């Protein structure tokens, strides 16, 4: 849960008052393992969270395919929610004041840095951008809990925050591995030949409102050995920016480097992240600025 460090930090404007898991016992273990206050209430049913009158905001931290069932009762109860991209219509029907989608990549230090470089005019007018990336999931062997769509939406939202929105686009989605081996979290085989129906290749071509053109290819599986899982270039009148990172999930794993090639001088310089600070969370390198900023902007 990437937002937990902020919720527990001195800067947080929130207080954790309840935890819901698959059972009351599991929720109690989470409270203990996460070192939450002993008075935090524990629930084993999402309806119980919805019925708790003392809860102002419900944060959905389940995996993507369980968001709907996890958060729907709280929306029906008129509660404010975080992580509800599938349910914004339900939020409107129940007059929910705050229903936020957790596209935290737009607050990542990489995006803030890129926006600053572009605003300074160091690249001139942006002419095109190209992205090649692997999403890590949807390969030949998959975790039993992760056999769903290679998600390009977080990455594309990040790109649009830096460069502007689409004016038009075309997309192609393809499931090139309809049968995969699934494994459990301990590495043991769950199923040798599991049927997969969701796409593992996503290709997008389009134009941005600025006039720049975009090409993106995002696929499942691991990158070529020794190569970055993300290569994103922004080509402009005065040069080109190259961003590399471990995978398409910038909002989770961050980026490795941002380089600027100045055409006039033919020099390549490394661009330092504008906001800098990073921390390890849940075994993954994540950007503290992104997590903190999106939460603070959520507070009215």
Automatic annotation (TrEMBL):
Gene3D superfamilies the UniProt entry points to: Dihydrodipicolinate Reductase, domain 2, NAD(P)-binding Rossmann-like Domain
Ranges of residues in domain Gfo/Idh/MocA-like oxidoreductase N-terminal: 5-82
Pfam families, alphabetized: Gal80p_C-like, GFO_IDH_MocA
Annotated SUPFAM superfamilies: Glyceraldehyde-3-phosphate dehydrogenase-like, C-terminal domain, NAD(P)-binding Rossmann-fold domains
Domain Gal80p-like C-terminal per the UniProt entry, residue ranges: 112-245
MF annotations from Gene Ontology: nucleotide binding
Protein name per Swiss-Prot or TrEMBL: Uncharacterized protein
Organism: Petromyces alliaceus
